[in-house]
Design goal:
heterodimer, A: 159 residues, mainly alpha, Butyryl-CoA Dehydrogenase, subunit A, domain 3, globular, B: 194 residues, 7 helices, 84% helix, elongated
């Protein structure tokens, strides 16, 4: 197995979830995964491990997300689960759909930061991906969590 | 759903099994790699070809009038500017392999400004050089035949006038709207990163 295939198998699911968090649309997220790995393939020889490989790949992926300028107009694309506010025991799919819907209502960079945070990237690495200081990222993550909590509350899911 | 760990658990339930396998992805990459930036490479190839063609014509054909050489030189100059601008733009894209979102937004803004500069300055220079060059170049082959002279020159002038006064403003307006929308979006993202 080549280095590229190793990278793809390891990072494609993570990149897909982050792109899905950004676009709230599975097809667009798949396209963005493809775009990301085209860039990874193209630049793999030039990559000299100046940064962690995961930082590098997440930078490429999130930049492709930002580049997909027309995506913003169509968000939030996915519908909320049917009669969600009245549902007491939601299925995992409904919970996931609500999470994506709430993330889709955030601003672009907030979507990126929370997606990377939920994916489990350390905040130092998120700071390197986004281009902010880690202190700034910490503050932003805190604010985004508050925003998400308010949104869940508004949808009757914050218990 | 009231803490980050809950959210992380939900986040990781997203199904990723519909993603292509690494083998399929490699096949897609090989196909799409050729398509990306193809238009830019095409512009460079055509400009270089025209430069070469014009140099060969000027060297091989026995022109007697200075206007032919001057016209050829102007066309070559226009093609050199076009090729150089496109190569510069390509180099910027190829350098973009490991930058943060903040740097990327700055790159997009620079690209936007470059596009505006291209429309307002570079494209004007290329069209003027090419048009004057072509009119001068066509003088020698047609000046002895008034019908041919008037026919070729007026047809070219009409073509350029239509392109310049009808096609260009329309295309510019369409792109200008896109570029302005892009500007607003970039400003919004830049503000988010402050």
């Amino acid at each position: 197995m080549t280095h590229f295939e190793d990278l793809y198998n390891r990072y494609a699911p993570q990149i897909f979830r982050v792109c899905l968090g950004y676009t709230n649309n599975a097809d667009q997220a798949k396209d963005l995964v493809q775009e990301t790995f085209i860039s990874v393939w193209k630049n793999l020889d030039g990559f000299r491990n100046q940064a962690q490989v995961s930082t590098w790949i997440f930078r490429i992926a999130t930049n492709h997300c930002l580049r997909a300028m027309e995506v913003a107009k169509r968000m939030p694309a996915a519908e909320l689960p049917f009669e969600l506010a009245e549902t007491v025991e939601e299925s995992p799919e409904e919970k996931l759909a609500l999470l994506y819907h709430c993330i889709a209502e955030l601003e672009e960079t907030e979507r990126i930061i929370i997606s990377l945070e939920l994916e489990g990237l350390p905040q130092v690495q998120i700071a390197e991906v986004v281009g902010l200081s880690s202190g700034n990222v910490r503050v932003k993550v805190h604010r985004i969590k508050e925003k998400l909590a308010q949104k869940f509350k508004a949808y009757g899911q914050f218990r | 759903m009231d803490n980050l760990d809950d959210l992380k658990a939900i986040w990781h339930t997203a199904k990723t099994d519909t993603l292509p396998s690494s083998g399929e992805m490699l096949q897609m990459i090989k196909k799409f790699r050729r398509q990306r930036l193809r238009n830019k490479w095409l512009v460079i190839a055509i400009s270089c070809l025209l430069i070469l063609l014009m140099v060969v014509i000027l060297c091989v054909l026995p022109f007697k009038m200075l206007t032919s050489y001057l016209g050829g030189a102007l066309i070559i100059a226009a093609m050199v500017i076009l090729a150089a601008t496109t190569i510069k733009s390509l180099r910027r894209f190829y350098r973009l392999d490991n930058c943060s979102n903040l740097e990327f937004i700055a790159f997009i803004e620079q690209t936007r400004q470059n596009q505006i500069y291209y429309y307002k300055k570079t494209m004007v220079a290329i069209v003027i050089l090419c048009s004057v060059g072509w009119l001068l170049y066509m003088y020698e082959p047609t000046y002895k035949h008034p019908i041919w002279f008037i026919g070729t020159h007026s047809a070219f002038i009409i073509y350029i006038a239509v392109m310049w006064f009808v096609v260009r403003p329309r295309s510019f307006k369409k792109d200008e709207n896109k570029l302005n929308a892009l500007k607003q979006r970039l400003q919004s993202i830049s503000n988010q990163l402050k």
